[in-house]
Structure formats: structure tokens, C-alpha cells
Specification:
Helix content: 25-40%
Shape: globular
Number of strands: 16
Radius of gyration: 20 Å
Largest sheet: 7 strands, mixed
Order of helices and strands: EHEEEEEHEHEHEHEHHEEEHHHHHEHHEE
Strand order of the largest sheet: 7-2-1-8-9-13-10
Structural class: alpha/beta
């Protein structure tokens, strides 16, 4: 028996899809996880999502859909977490390619459904920004979710929209999302989190990291992204809710605007019109800025005092936790130094590793 799970936002949503499959469906069947190859600039220095032409070693599942096996390789300078995910997750990862717009994704989905005859189709979003109207001032990344929503709403097969970790992506708050959520489908537990624990030792997803942290009982306020957004870690964090697909589409102005698009450029144009921006433009600008930055050496004698200063400021903002991605950028390091930084900090101060987050400790009484 095959289940199809569409990871609406790509990145960490694919990791969470594996945890969702284990929690809801167990080991009696397998999943095909359709996901973007769209990583943050820490991993992929090329702005925007990758397509099949950006990899070697892909395997054709249908004429329009390619799977990403562990042996696949992104073509330099592109980067991707998908081959390593394929090596560590017991599922087939299929590449969601948005370069032909929503209509292209509809074709990919229809081919997969015809090929697999899946027992169920779930559209999974971590955080809930798939329910954004498009004009929210905190919205940062509407494009991927909108394409996935616009495409799945055009299918004749039934699709269940699931929102996990309301508010954990730092875009729409749990308070704003609460009236929009439908029935509770599952509450992730520490046992569920163990199914992807080794992946989150290296994967840079912040929302999925917070999802598993809340499943393990972590509570507080986590600071994320380069902007230092505060995200509450509450009892709502590990919950998974169903949301009516048509209701989501009626709310998401960008998804409705792009239903007939046949290129990513068209989608971006609509995003600029509906939301006032395109996150790919943001990535382009940031990539240019990053190229101009001088190289930084990862030296414990320099990094640890900087960490102390960052933590002191974070405490003053009421922050109790942060992510290793946030630390990497806050300490003025580059993406390739995230994993070495993580190892350095865990080895130096293991008591602060509140897996998979970094705990901001209270100052010593003698300070």
C-alpha cells in the first residue's frame, strides 16, 4: 500500500512528512513524499527552487516526476539536502518542480496518482502559513505553499490538508490560526520525534526542529531566522490539525491567483502583486550580499565569547531557545560552518543542547 504525502513548503516539511507517516500509518505501507528541492542559502547558495536539470542521478517515476535517490548529486553550485534525506528516510522522495507553475505541478500530481494509486493523499504544511491571505506583515515565504495548494485543489482525487505545529514557522501566529483549524488528527509525542531524530542532527529546518522539540516537551520562546523572530513553544506545537482544502484556497489569495500559471516567473509576478514581494527576490538579494562577505574562521576563542554576548541579549528579549541556523547567522558564520559550529557548541556546553534546539541558559549567580 502506498501513501502520497505532498510537503507543501519543501525543506523540513519533507522531514516532518516522514514523522507523520510513522505516526499515522506505521510500517505496514510506504510513502512517496513529493517535495521541493528548495533549501535555504545556508545549504543551497543559488536562489529559488531546483529542478531536475540541477541534479545528476535522478530516477524517472513518470514522464514529469523524478525521484531523488541517495546517489543523486546536485550540480555545482547548487546544493540540496534531498540526497542525504533519501539515504536516511525509509521513503521515496519525489521532486516537486514548480518551474512550470501550478499547472505543471498538477500534471506531476496526476501522473503520480495514476502511477501509484495511493491509498491516501496528504498535503502537509508545518506552521500554517498555507492559510495566509497574503497581506500579513509577518509573512515571509508564501510561494511554495501557494503552488502546492493551488495544484492539489485542481485534482479529482481527494486530498487531506494537514497543518502541523501551528505558528511554528514564525509567520502566522497560533492565535491567528486557531479559529481556522479543523479537527485534531494527531499530537506528536517524544516517541514520534525519535523517528527523525538522527536527521535533525544535521538538517537545518527550524520549524521541524521546533515541532519535534515541542513533541519532546520543550516549552519557552525560540528565536529563529536571520531576523531573530520569536516563536512560542507551547502545548499547541506538536498538534496536527485537518483543514478543509476549499476553505484554505478561498483564504489564500495568492493560491487562487496562480491556479492557471505555467511558469515560476508568472507565480513570482503574482506574489509581488498579491503579497508585495517574492521571497526569491529576497534570496537573490541576500545571495549577492553573502558573496561580498569576507571569510570567517571558526575559532572557539572567538566564537564562544560572541555566543555569550548573543545569549545575554537574547535573555533580555525573553528568549529561552534558539536554532543552530539562527546561531550560525547571528555569530556571522557562513552556511558551511553550521555543522562544525553545532559540534563545537555541543562539545563545549552539552548541557545546553535541548535536542534539537540550543537552550539559552540563565546567567550564573556570580555573573
Amino acid at each position: 500500500m502506498t501513501r502520497l504525502i505532498v510537503a507543501a513548503g519543501g525543506g523540513g516539511d519533507a522531514v516532518a512528512a516522514a514523522m507523520l507517516h510513522a505516526a499515522l500509518y506505521g510500517d505496514e505501507d510506504r510513502a512517496v513524499i513529493l517535495t521541493y528541492a528548495w533549501d535555504r542559502l545556508l545549504i543551497d547558495p543559488v536562489p529559488g527552487p531546483r529542478g531536475p536539470e540541477d541534479f545528476t542521478g535522478l530516477t524517472a517515476l513518470t514522464p514529469a516526476v523524478w525521484s531523488v535517490p541517495a546517489s543523486a548529486t546536485p550540480i555545482t553550485p547548487s546544493g540540496s539536502t534531498l540526497p542525504r534525506l533519501a539515504a536516511e528516510l525509509p521513503h521515496t522522495l519525489a521532486l516537486l518542480d514548480p518551474h512550470q507553475g501550478a499547472k505543471g505541478v498538477v500534471r506531476q500530481l496526476e501522473e503520480l496518482i495514476n502511477q501509484l494509486a495511493p491509498a491516501s493523499i496528504d498535503l502537509l504544511d508545518i506552521g500554517g502559513d498555507i492559510l495566509a491571505q497574503g497581506d500579513e506583515p509577518t509573512l515571509r515565504s508564501p510561494v511554495a505553499d501557494a503552488i502546492a495548494l493551488a495544484a492539489t485543489c485542481q485534482l479529482s482525487a481527494p486530498v487531506r490538508l494537514l497543518v502541523a505545529g501551528p505558528g511554528l514557522d514564525g509567520e502566522l501566529s497560533a492565535d491567528d490560526l486557531r479559529p481556522l483549524l479543523g479537527p485534531l488528527v494527531h499530537t506528536f509525542t517524544a516517541k514520534d520525534a525519535e523517528t527523525i531524530a538522527t536527521v535533525l542532527e544535521w538538517h537545518p529546518s527550524e520549524a521541524t526542529a521546533m515541532l519535534t522539540a515541542t513533541a519532546r516537551g520543550v516549552r519557552g520562546t525560540c528565536e529563529v531566522r536571520d531576523a531573530g523572530l520569536p516563536v512560542p513553544l507551547t502545548e499547541e506545537g506538536p498538534r496536527v490539525h485537518e483543514v478543509d482544502l476549499d476553505d484554505a484556497l478561498s483564504r489564500n489569495n495568492l493560491a487562487r491567483a496562480i491556479t492557471a500559471t505555467t511558469s515560476l516567473d508568472e507565480v513570482e509576478a503574482h506574489s509581488r502583486e498579491v503579497c508585495g514581494f517574492s521571497e526569491i527576490d529576497y534570496e537573490r538579494n541576500k545571495a549577492t550580499w553573502l558573496k561580498a562577505q569576507p571569510p570567517v574562521t571558526l575559532d572557539a576563542a572567538i566564537v564562544l565569547p560572541r555566543l555569550d554576548a548573543f545569549e545575554a541579549e537574547a535573555r533580555s528579549r525573553g528568549v529561552t531557545h534558539t536554532t543552530f541556523r539562527r546561531l550560525t547567522e547571528a555569530l556571522n558564520l557562513n552556511g558551511s560552518q553550521r555543522d562544525p559550529l553545532r559540534r563545537l557548541l555541543i562539545n563545549s556546553r552539552p548541557e545546553q543542547h535541548d535536542t534539537p534546539l540550543w537552550r539559552i541558559t540563565a546567567p550564573d549567580a556570580t555573573d
